[in-house]
Amino acid sequence: AQTKQKTTEAFDSIFYHTYMETATTDLDKALHTADSLYQSSKTDIHKIRSLMLISDMYHRKANRDSSIYYAKVAEDIAHNANIFDWQAVYFPPNTETWECINKVAFT
User: Fold this and answer.
1) CB atoms closer than 10 angstroms to residue 31
2) How many CB atoms lie within 10 A of CB 32?
3) How many CA atoms lie within 13 A of 89 on its CB side?
4) Taking the model in full, what pTM does it have?
5) How many CB atoms sit inside 10 A of residue 51's CB?
6) Closest among 47, 54, 44 to 83, alpha carbons compared
7) Is 25 left (phi over 0), alpha (psi -120 to 50) or beta?
8) Do the Cβ atoms of 22 and 73 come closer than 8 Å?
C-alpha cells in the first residue's frame, strides 16, 4: 500500500510540474514527459490522466487531430474499465470528444 502511495505521489508531482511549468515554456519537452508518464502508468487512472495531458499538449500546439485522438483513447479506457466518475465528469454523454480535451484531471 505504501509503494502504491509513493507511486501516486511521484506521478502527481511529475504530472503537475509538467502541466503547470514545463508546458508553459517547452511544449515538446512537456509532451515527451507526458508520453513517458503514460508509458510508465500502472493504473487506468494514471493512463487516463497522462493521455489527457498528452491531449492538452497537442491542443496547445494547435494539433486538433492528435488532441482528439488521445482524448478518445482516454475516454475508451475510462469506459472499458467502468471508471464512472471519469466518464461522468470528463466525458459526459452527448458531448463531443473535442469538448473534453481541456478537462485535464487533478483527481
Assistant:
1) 22
2) 15
3) 12
4) 0.81
5) 26
6) 44
7) alpha
8) no
Between CA 86 and CA 48 the distance in angstroms is 9
Work out whether the CA dihedral 16, 83, 36, 99 comes out positive or negative.
negative
Phi, psi of 91 (to 5 degrees): -135, 60
Q: Of 29, 48, 30, which Cα lies nearest the Cα of 38? A: 48
Tell me the per-residue pLDDT of 32-88, one tens digit each, with 9 for 90 and over.
Answer: 999 999 999 999 999 999 999 999 999 999 999 999 899 889 989 988 998 877 655
Residue 52 in grid coordinates: 489527457
Which burial class, exposed, middle or buried, applies to 40 when counting CB atoms under 10 A from its CB (0-12, 13-18, 19+)?
Answer: middle
99 vs 89: CA distance, rounded Å? 12
| Grid coordinates belonging to 10 | 511521484
Q: How far apart are CA 29 and CA 51, in angstroms?
A: 15
Closest alpha carbon to 100 in 51, 91, 14: 91
Q: Which residue has the cell 481541456?
A: 102
